[in-house]
Write a structure and sequence with these properties.
CATH topology of the largest domain: Pectate Lyase C-like
Number of domains: 2
Helix content: under 10%
CATH superfamily of the largest domain: E3 ubiquitin-protein ligase SopA
CATH class of the largest domain: Mainly Beta
Largest sheet: 6 strands, parallel
Strand content: 15-25%
Number of strands: 14
Structural class: mainly beta
CATH architecture of the largest domain: 3 Solenoid
Shape: elongated
Oligomer: single chain
InterPro entries: 5peptide_repeat, Pentapeptide-BTB/POZ_domain
Length: 202
């Protein structure tokens, strides 16, 4: 899907085809930078900051990032195979046409993130704040969303078949517009979904 130029942050500098594989990016600060074709394979970071940056066709594969901020960034055609993100902040960021094989996120704030139509099969997302995230059309069969704050999130057209949703806030989940066959929920989740269906749980 073509990216709407109006949604892209206005960048001021650009980095093209750089080799940052295996680099330690800890403490680095980047603002309004356009990254294109950058290889970040096995790169690591603790406390790095990227604000209003655009990443196009960048490879984050096998990277590990801790307490790093990627706020209001846009990722287009990027690869996140076997990436680990721990306690990271991605508020307002947008992912388009990215791949997420063996993607693992623990903790952090992903509120207002757009993962519309994302291929999140078997992704593991635990203890993350994802308030008002856009997961419409996401392919998340057999994914794990454990103890995730999904209040106000959009799931229209999402496939959550066989997903583990235990401990998550599902108040924004309309079971009529999402596929939930075989999904695993707990009692609280069952009450929330029943409420979305207009049922009176006693």
């Amino acid at each position: 899907m073509a990216t709407d130029p109006a949604r892209l942050p206005r960048t001021e500098t650009a980095i093209h085809d750089a080799d940052w594989a295996l680099d330690d990016l800890s403490g680095q600060v980047h603002e309004r930078v356009a990254f294109s074709g950058v290889d970040l394979t096995e790169a690591t970071s603790t406390g790095a900051s990227f604000t209003e940056c655009v990443f196009t066709r960048c490879r984050f594969n096998a990277g590990a990032h801790v307490r790093t901020a990627l706020v209001n960034c846009v990722f287009v055609g990027c690869s996140f195979f076997e990436v680990r993100l721990d306690d990271c902040k991605l508020v307002g960021s947008v992912f388009e046409d990215c791949t997420f094989g063996l993607f693992a996120v623990t903790g952090g704030d992903w509120s207002f993130v757009s993962l519309a139509r994302a291929q999140l099969q078997k992704a593991t997302i635990t203890g993350v704040r994802m308030r008002e995230a856009d997961l419409s059309g996401a392919k998340a069969a057999r994914a794990t969303f454990r103890d995730v704050d999904l209040s106000g999130a959009s799931f229209r057209g999402a496939d959550l078949s066989g997903a583990d949703l235990r401990g998550s806030d599902l108040t924004g989940l309309d079971p009529v517009t999402a596929t939930l066959k075989g999904a695993v929920i707990d009692t609280a989740g069952a009450v929330q979904i029943a409420g979305a269906l207009g049922l009176d749980v006693r």
